[in-house]
Structures are given as structure tokens and as C-alpha cells.
């Protein structure tokens, strides 16, 4: 009778002891050694929020996804300097960015060439939102426009993160303020931007915008300007290296004045990272239809410098 009792009790005790060691090994912090030297078993479970997935924590996985989606630390800006913009902010929270550039266009219809100067100041309100104040492009050589002094106020908000199935999404809201001499009316534009990674280092963007034009900087703009305008088109960018990003965009948009056809514009662009906080942007626009008012050919250059933070 005694042996019949001790046998089951002994076996049950051995099982409980083994289970105790196993649970202790599973609950040990990652990288710690169990009493028996079983390091592999000790790494099976971490009680911290950073549980490991495939040998990497959730924060490491998230950082990798953001890097693949936005490029190296998101340092390449594909903003509204280009005809099709990305759904990611161009400045970090608490930082400023100064932008200065030039534009040159020769039109398909009558009229002289346009040479423009641009200056903008950007502030990152949060990691997803920034505010931008800019001078409307000053048209050098045209006395009616030169030094006009209109201002642009823009707010950007990134509201959806990219997943395996959903693109990143953002809204751009822009308003022209008639602060310049001889200017009138307030114009407004709302743009939706989508961005999706389709291959390593390759992203696709899709933009659509609507604009209400209620005035203008010149008499011609006020008399003939199309009051409701729209545009849409796709774009692609590819990260050739940690310093170069190539860009191809196509935009189909309504003309800015009545009596002119839609504009179809092909854009080839480049984003060059000079330093940790400095970028050079360049783009070439080519009109595809020859419609009056459509740029026949254009060159854009811009210097960006981020500071603060």
C-alpha cells in the first residue's frame, strides 16, 4: 500500500518541478540566463510591451516600415514644389524650414516667358501637421506683377498611416491672401494626396485638387480667370541612393482661364540631399498637348534648409 501511494506522489512531484522550471524560463527577460544555462528558453517571452517578433521588437519593425515608406529618416521632401506631392510632412515637429527658389516657363500660346522668384517659411506644428507662409511668386520683368506682394497660407495634415493594404493619406489646404497692391479676392485650394510603397525604394503617389479662384493679381486674371479649377494625376519616386531621389509625375488639370483647354503636363524631377538639413529640388515640366496657356517647357529649382529643434 505504501509503494502504491509514494509512486504516484513521486511522479507528480517530478512533473510539478519540471513545469516550474519551464515557466520560470519562459518568463525570464530576453537575453537573461536561466539557472541551467538555457538561454534559448529564456528568450521565448518578454513581459515588457516590446515583445519580439521574428527577433525584432515592435518598435524596430515600425521604424523599418517608416524607413522603407519615407526613405532614409523621411529626409526626401516630395511636397507641392512638384506637381504631384506625397502624403508625408516635409518638416519635423518644432522645426522650421526656409525655402527659396526660381521658376522659368515658356508658354505654348502667345506671350513672353515667365521668370519667377519664390520664398517660403514652414513650421512643424506636430509630427503630422505643418503651417506654411509664402510670397506669391514674383514675376520678374512684368511690371504689372513685379513686387505684387500677395501671400499664401497653407496647412498640411497627414491623417492616415500606410499599411500593407492602405496608402498614406494627407490633405493640403491653401489660401491666397490679396495683400499686394492692386490684388483682390481670396482663392482657396484643397488637395488630397495618397502615397503607397509598391516595391523597395519605389513609391506611387496620387493627387487630386479643387480650387476656387475669386480674384487675381492682374486685370487679366480677374476678368478671364476660371472660377472653379481642378486637377488630378499620378506620380512615382525612386530612391537611387541615400542622396538622390528621382521623380516622374503626370498632371491633368483645368486651364486657369476661360477659353483654354485642359493642361496635360509631364514632370521629371530630382531631389538631392546636400546635408543632414539641406535639400536641392529640381524639376522640368513639359506640356503634352500644346494648348494655349499650357507651359510648353519649364524649369524649377529650389533650396530648402531646415533648422531649429
Task: Give a description of the structure.
- This protein is α+β, with helices and mostly antiparallel strands.
- The N terminus is likely disordered.
- The protein is globular.
- Helix content is 16%, strand content 45%.
- It has 4 helices and 15 strands.
- It has 2 domains: 47 residues, no CATH class; 239 residues, Porin (Beta Barrel), CATH 2.40.160.
- The strands form 2 sheets. The chain has a 12-stranded antiparallel β-barrel with strand order 3-4-5-7-8-9-10-11-12-13-14-15. The protein has a two-stranded antiparallel sheet with strand order 1-2.
- Strand 14 and strand 15 form a beta hairpin.
- The longest helix has 26 residues.
pLDDT averaged over residues: 79
Please, how many helices?
Answer: 4
Helix content: 10-25%
Q: What is the number of independent domains?
A: 2
The count of β-strands is 15
Low-confidence stretches: 1-12, 18-54, 65-73
What structural class should be given to the helix and strand makeup? alpha+beta
Query: Which homologous superfamily in CATH is the superfamily of the largest domain?
Result: monomeric porin ompg
First-to-last CA distance: 80 Å
- Portion of residues in beta strands equals 35-45%
| Apparent shape | globular
Strand order of the largest sheet: 3-4-5-7-8-9-10-11-12-13-14-15
Radius of gyration: 29 Å
For the record, the CATH class of the largest domain is Mainly Beta
Amino acid at each position: 500500500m505504501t509503494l502504491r501511494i509514494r509512486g504516484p506522489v513521486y511522479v507528480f512531484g517530478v512533473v510539478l518541478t519540471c513545469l516550474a522550471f519551464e515557466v520560470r524560463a519562459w518568463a525570464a527577460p530576453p537575453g537573461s540566463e536561466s539557472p541551467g544555462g538555457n538561454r534559448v528558453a529564456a528568450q521565448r517571452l518578454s513581459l515588457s510591451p516590446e515583445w519580439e517578433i521574428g527577433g525584432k521588437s515592435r518598435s524596430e519593425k515600425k521604424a523599418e516600415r517608416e524607413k522603407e515608406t519615407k526613405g532614409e529618416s523621411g529626409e526626401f521632401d516630395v511636397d507641392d514644389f512638384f506637381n504631384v506631392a506625397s502624403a508625408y510632412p516635409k518638416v519635423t515637429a518644432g522645426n522650421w524650414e526656409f525655402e527659396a527658389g526660381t521658376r522659368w516657363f515658356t508658354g505654348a500660346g502667345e506671350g513672353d516667358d515667365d521668370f519667377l522668384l519664390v520664398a517660403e517659411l514652414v513650421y512643424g506644428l506636430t509630427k503630422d501637421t505643418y503651417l506654411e507662409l509664402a510670397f506669391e511668386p514674383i514675376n520678374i520683368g512684368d511690371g504689372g506683377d513685379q513686387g505684387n506682394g500677395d501671400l499664401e497660407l497653407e496647412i498640411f495634415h497627414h491623417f492616415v498611416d500606410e499599411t500593407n493594404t492602405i496608402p498614406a493619406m494627407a490633405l493640403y489646404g491653401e489660401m491666397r491672401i490679396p495683400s499686394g497692391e492692386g490684388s483682390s479676392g481670396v482663392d482657396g485650394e484643397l488637395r488630397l494626396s495618397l502615397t503607397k510603397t509598391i516595391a523597395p525604394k519605389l513609391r506611387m503617389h496620387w493627387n487630386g485638387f479643387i480650387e476656387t479662384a475669386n480674384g487675381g493679381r492682374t486685370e487679366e486674371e480677374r476678368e478671364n480667370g476660371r472660377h472653379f479649377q481642378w486637377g488630378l494625376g499620378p506620380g512615382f519616386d525612386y530612391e537611387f541612393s541615400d542622396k538622390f531621389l528621382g521623380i516622374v509625375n503626370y498632371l491633368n488639370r483645368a486651364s486657369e482661364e476661360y477659353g483654354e483647354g485642359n493642361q496635360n503636363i509631364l514632370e521629371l524631377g530630382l531631389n538631392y540631399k546636400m546635408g543632414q538639413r539641406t535639400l536641392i529640388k529640381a524639376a522640368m515640366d513639359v506640356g503634352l498637348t500644346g494648348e494655349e496657356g499650357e507651359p510648353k517647357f519649364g524649369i524649377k529649382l529650389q533650396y530648402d534648409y531646415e533648422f531649429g529643434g
